[in-house]
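Bug #2210: C-alpha cell dump truncated for 1-aminocyclopropane-1-carboxylate oxidase homolog 1 isoform X1?
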Amino acid sequence: MFTSNSDREAELRAFDETKLGVKGIVDAGISTIPSIFINPTSQKNNAVDKDVRFDVPIIDLHGGENCIDHRKKVVEEIREASETWGFFQVVNHGISDMILEEMFKGVRGFFELDNDVKKGYYSRDYGSGKFTYHSNADLYTSIAANWRDTFVCMMAPNPPSSDALPPPCREILIEYSKQMMNLGKTLFALLSEALGLPQSHLYEMGCLEGLNILGHYYPACPQPELTLGTSKHADGCFLTILLQDQIGGLQILHQNHWVDVPYTPGALVINVGDALQLITNDKFKSVEHRVLANYKGPRISIGSFFTTFYQETSKKFGPIKKLLSDVNPPKYREMTMKEYGVYSLKKGLDGTSTLQHFKI
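Reproduced locally. Full output below:
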C-alpha cells in the first residue's frame, strides 16, 4: 500500500513520541508490523547462500602477551583476518564468563524497566555524553526503521557519574567498560604490529581515546521476513568489540555472500571500522554487516565502539604516513571523528558506504 511522505512522517513521529520503542509495540500485542518498519531490502531478498561455506576466523589470544612465538602467530592471524574479512572472533581474551553474563542481564534489566522509568532516559541528543536510550538513531533519515531499541553511553574519556546510570546496569557497565578498555589496548597493540608498526602506534594516535557502549535489544518480531534488526552498514569507529547472545542473526557480507557469524560461547566478535580502514589506507577492511529480525527474541547484544563520535575535538585522522609510498598514495582526506559521525547520522543506514564521502 502506498504511503505518502507526510503520512510516513506522521507515523514516525507518533512512534517516536511514545518513547517506548519497538518493545512498546510488541508489548501492545501486535500481529503485523507497522509500515515504517517494512524494508524493501530485508532478508527475503538477501538470503544466505547455503551452498557456500565460509567460517569466520576464531583467534585464540591466550599466551599472546608472554610467548613470543604465539604472539607472532596471533599477529599474523589478526593481519590476515583484518585484510580479508574485517571480522574475527577472539577467545581466551581474559574477560570472565560471569562478567559477560552480568552484562547481558544488565541490558535486559534496563529494557524491561517500568515504562515510566525508562521513558526518562529517552533522548535523541547523541552528543550529550549522558546515558540515553532511543529506537533507531537514523529514524527520520533511513528508508525503513529497524526492529531494535538501543541504549548509548560514552564511557571514555569522560564517563557519566555512577548515579547517572540506570540501576539495572550501573555496576556492570562500569566494570565492563574497564574490561573493554584493557582488551582494546591489547587489540590495538596487536593490530599495530600487524601493520608493521610499533605496538604503541595506534594507541598513541588516539584510537583508544573514546569508548561508546551500545546495548541493543531486538524484540521478537511477528513478521521478521519484512524487516531487519539492523540494516546493512559498516561501523564508523576504529574498532568494535561485540558481545552477542545465543539467538544469533548477525551476518557479514564476505565475497558477495551473506555469512552468519555464529554464537560461540565466551567469544567476542571483533569488527574493523571505517576509521581504521581510513588510517590504514585500505589495508584493513571495514566490512558491511547486518542483523536479521527473528521470531524468538529478545536478542541482546552489546557493542563497544572505540571512537570519539560527537565529541568536540580538532584532532584529525588520515592515512598513516609510514604506510604510504609512491605506489600507495593516500586514498582519503583527513577528517575528525565528529565530522564522520555527523555525516553518517545525516545519511542514515541507506546501504551505501559513508567512507566514500572522505575519498580523495
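Output looks complete on our side. The CA atoms of residues 133 and 310 lie 16 Å apart. Marking as cannot-reproduce; reopen if the truncation happens again.
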